[in-house]
């Protein structure tokens, strides 16, 4: 599976209203971000002063060796974990000083999540799983947007199936649709294709990329897989808690070369 042989559509031009202030290019920003686990001699500095901007309307992949800090970075950016020092701004909001209550609200209303293990509710149908975040937040379902997400995810004929009646790839596409249906500022995807065969992985990645190109979504994903990362607009490389490089318009080949250089 590679993205090299599939044409990479360029994001559609979006006309800017005349007097509107341009949206800031970064949807999430970390400055001098430090995360230390434990204390004293056994302390681990998982993030050692990270400065990064995640570009709005792009799919960003985070790669690096095991233990380099990928999950920690994603969790700190998503308000799932608290930074030790430094700042994180997500969609204009400084989250490092937020209370637990504010963070929960931010995650529920402004962020979308896709996990390796799908995390669907087994007793609900596909469409009920997709609209669950809106139901919990007591928000109205925008039927037109729901229809466009369902069409993009290619599950129109599986909407009334329960997760046990769906393949892994189909379940993960339901999880992606669930993450997108509330139009979050940013979707965080943690190894979204880690449990999938290459064909299903390609379907999920194609959908995540299309959500950016066609729906204007911003997505960040942690992955170990160069083929998966080749679907991104930009790949960030971490090593020992530092941001050590990046690639724009990556291919599986250039990503492999960069990983080899990292050792
Ligand atoms: N809860 C924790 N308590 C103590 N140390 C932790 C904790 N979580 C992560 N670490 C340590 O922080 C460092 C970074 O871990 P992290 O999980 O962010 O790396 P990663 O790049 O996502 O790794 P992997 O690819 O194996 O998932 C590692 O040394 C890890 O052992």
UniProtKB/TrEMBL annotation:
GO CC aspect terms: membrane protein complex; plasma membrane
Keyword Cell inner membrane: no
Single Gene Ontology MF annotation: transmembrane transporter activity
Residues covered by the ABC transporter domain: 28-259
Cited PROSITE patterns: ABC_TRANSPORTER_2 (PS50893)
Domain of life: Bacteria
Region Disordered, annotated ranges: 1-23
Record keywords, A-Z: ATP-binding, Nucleotide-binding, Transport
Protein name: ABC transporter ATP-binding protein
InterPro entries, sorted: AAA+_ATPase (IPR003593), ABC_transporter-like_ATP-bd (IPR003439), ABC_transpr_LolD-like (IPR015854), MacB-like_ATP-bd (IPR017911), P-loop_NTPase (IPR027417)
